[in-house]
Structure formats: C-alpha cells, structure tokens
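INFO  loader      accepted 1 record
INFO  loader      residues=111
INFO  predictor   begin
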Amino acid sequence: MTTDVFIDSFGTCWQDPPPPRYRAAVLGINLTNALLNPPDDPALADIVAHQTGQDAGVRDYVLNTPGAARIITDAVHELTALLAAAQGRPVQLLANCWYGRHRSVDRTKES
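INFO  predictor   done
INFO  writer      dumping tokens
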C-alpha cells in the first residue's frame, strides 16, 4: 500500500495555511526565524527580488544557514514517525515562512 505525502509551502504574511488534505495527518514547520532570508541580505536583495527558493542560488543560500541540515534531518524523522502513526492515511507537511517565497518554498507534488 502506498501512502500519499503532500508538501505545501505558504507565506503567513499573505495567506492562511492550506487546508488539510483529505484525512491527512499534518506536520507543520515554521521556518520564519529558523533559516536565513535572502532579501534581508543587502548584497542579495535586488538579485533575489524576482527569484524563489526553487532558484539554485536562493536555495543554496538558505540551505547554508547554520543548523539548516539539522532542521531537514529533524523534519524527515518527524515525517517518518507521522507516516508510521498515520496507518495508511495521507501525510501533509506544511512549511511556512513570512512571505513564502524563499525559505519555505518547495515544489509541491502529489504522490
């Protein structure tokens, strides 16, 4: 049996969290203060103004935040535990930051 895992990202400044997927067990991660925000860096502000976390330079900058690897590792462990507890139900990861363009962005795919 295959369990669906959904990843949704959003900006809390602009929108409410996406609604839970049908019967999904939900894990939320707030990245607002946990990861560096590229627009806050004066050397990058103009460069990243029209980019997102899906652009390699932005993604690399964010992932070079001290502790970023630990955040990812912890999220994987929490999602793994949630999958086990969900007993075949879908699982949804909600990743958010303030604007939802640079730190929380991931390609949202339905499995």
